[in-house]
Amino acid sequence: MQDSLQSSYRQLEQKSKYTNIFLRWFLYLVLILFASYFIFPLYVMIVTSLKTMEEIRQGTLLTWPSSLNFDSWAVAWGGRGYGAGDTFLKPYFWNSIKMVVPAVFFSTFIGAMAGYVLTKWRFKGDKWVFLFLLFGCFIPYQAILLPMARTLGVLGISNSVIGLVLVHTVYGIPFTTLFFRNFYVSVPTELVKAARIDGAGFFKIFFKILLPISAPIIVVTVIWQFTQIWNDFLFGSTFSFGEAAPIQVALNNMVLSSTSVKEYNVDMASAIIAGIPTLIVYVLAGKYFIRGLTSGAVKG
Amino acid sequence: MAFFLIKKKVLTMFKWLEKNLPKIVMAPAVGLIGWFVYGFVLWTLYISFTNSKILPKYELWGFGQYEKLWASRKWLISVDNLLIFTALFLVFCIVIGIILAIFLDQKIRSEGLLRTIYLYPMALSFIVTGTAWKWILNPTLGIQKLFIDWGFENFTFDWLVNREMAIYTIVIAGVWQSAGFVMALFLAGLRSVEDEIVKAAKIDGAGIFTVYWKILLPMMRPVFFTSFVILVHISIKSYDLIVALTQGGPGISTTMPALYMTQTAFHKSQVGLSAASAMMMFMAVAAVIIPYLYSELRRENAR
Amino acid sequence: MKTLKIEDLSKNFGSTEVLKKINLEIDEGNFLVLLGPSGCGKSTLLNIIAGLETINEGNVFIDDYNVSKVEPKDRNIAMVFQSYALYPSMNVKENMIFGLKQAKTSKDKIKEQLEKVSKFLQVDQLLERKPSQLSGGQRQRVAIGRALVREPRIFLFDEPLSNLDAKLRVEMRREIKKLHQQLKTTVVYVTHDQTEAMSLGTKIAIMNHGVIQQNDTPENIYNKPNNTFVADFIGSPSMNLIKGKLKQSSNIISFVAEGSNLEIPIDNYNFKANDNLNNKEVFFGIRPEHIFFKKLNDNDLEITLRADLSEYIGHEQIMTFDYDNQEILAKFPSTIKTELSKETKLYFDLTQVSLFDAKTEERI
Q: The pTM is what?
């Protein structure tokens, strides 16, 4: 009796051991397959950008370049230096920087103040105000393109970096407010009460008490806004053209306007250049990037 | 008593300012959004009822633009495309996202690295993504050539230039970009479930599949809902990806509403018609978002 | 001159009335505890005294000066919070002197105060630390220190001990008591813990549903509860409330429980008013600790009840008896041997009895 019980336990143990080993292998197989699907385009981009057109025509997507050849990167960044329609990314890269830095700063600051008021200086109807702002996260921008184009024209800042700064600041506010509100909601209100009794006013409480502990949410917000604005194409292509265009617009024009032969290596180099700032941010601060993504979606 | 003989601020103005400071600080945000979001949407709505061409006109013209819109073949194609794209995009993103999330949840070695790989496309712009996929999918030198060189001599893959199939290339690139995001949402959801629930189920004899299928996934209802809303929202707005990948072509076979709107407004100068199409998009988004915001707010109030 | 006076104070949040016509006075040097279940409005009342919440009706006076519209910082109060609310980005020293700096106190004075208070609270070794590097008890001390340096007229405490573990809580309770004995500053202290209230307060105000139920010395609160809420809220286990009627024949008044024939004589009870007591529906209240196993006084009433349940809790045991289908709890030393399901002789100390009107639930 005792023996048969023992052996049946042993059988069960063996059985579950084999299923477990099988499941483990299956698990890793699937995960690695998907990983290759996700990594594949990036690999192709990098490899292609390092090949010559000759190599591209002879090999396949996956073949490794015979030598590390950065010529197409140089062309993508600085152009060839001759010929009409010689477009290259350098000036547009700087356009994007000039647009991103102030737009991120202003939208983050306004959002931080709004989040602070909405959580720590509550007033009647503040929930509605929050909802009012929150809806701005979701509107399809097509519904504001026409009046925005006219407004920028009236203000005399259409087709300029300043115009894009304004646009990105405004449409970033709903997101930045959402981030800061959700962060400040979890900061105990007792801190504000203590500071008020200690005699600190509205701005002092914000700058001395709350701002010093806001580093995580500032990082999340700045990364989010940076990524959004850097990657924007709709506003950039609608409100700017020619020399004031940001990098995504320039990249698209470059890829589309190659007149004679398609130069895939230059295209890929350009795409990498346009994508590298956000990729670097993602690799360095992925944790905060994911937090922004998920809290932008699932609030609270 | 002397403590309270505070400097009686004669400046009532100052007092008022101090008292209303929070609202004053709030004003720029509310004002900007009020003007640039709500004001502009209303303006677009108004224009959609006029017969505006290059320049906006302000006499009302009834529903003419909407009639024109729904009679236009290009718009109908773009709505069809949107429906196809949304359905496939939703299904693939959610299925892949859930599979990855569940698999990653099994105490996987180098989970961090895998997560980073699955999610990096979200950091790239659709233009960059589109450029890359355009190269990969191009029929002469892309994937087709890869397979032919591998020995599949009759392999053809010309979806990108095939009227019937081009829309699916957009799905491939779109799913590639967004599936990781769904994975992140579900992984966060799974991680927030209390251990004890899983322990209880295991003691009750539930296998790993039962635990997920019967217990954990049903608990993820809010995450499903959120993913649904966000993905639908992304697909209605999708514009950049199409511009980079197909420009709406071949012909007009991959046009979608967002592309239709900008083309009608800025290339064809049909301001009224494009406003009407923008309002259709707005209503589609609102139909999804308003119930979502409402339920989110209610959940927050219940807490 | 009253240090603190609250006059007809009402407060609503939207349509919910949180405080209803509160009146309260505190003399110099008193330690007033606001005690009540969660949601009774005690914290709101404290916040109003601090000036952190606005008032819908009524006034708050500090030293006879109407401070209803005065900013918190100008009320000359200090407050210790449940979560301590130490500024996370500042070290202990900066936390403690933040208020003095806001008030533009001279550097010398700040230094002097800081030295005095940090020595007094034994946090002088911790001054450079951040709050996150402190233990619970240390944070508590710093929070008190931050309040002390301001030398306020009134100290406000908002459940300051409820985040501490049981042992530390008893320790800190003693320290707060000592602190009050030494400084003799007026204190308003909010808690939901009756032991804390009893041991600390010179006065206790018991609140429920936004109304002060009784404002009295701890002794009176315990011995002469104003109504059944107070009787039930104070004491552990709480007072037995036996439903029944009064019976008056000539000069003898007695209590008869529902479904019982036994007449309990209550001649020595101090009625508030003597009118019309016969047949009055009442609750007869007696605390578990006033029911004995042996006759101690001549007046003790002997009564035989069936023991149903015994809960051993170490130094004592709580017994449940059946009094004609009403439960009665009694507290005995755990050395006494008891048997369940048996009729047991008990002795009620009738000098410790309370009677409440069954309708109004007020003491009669």
A: 0.84
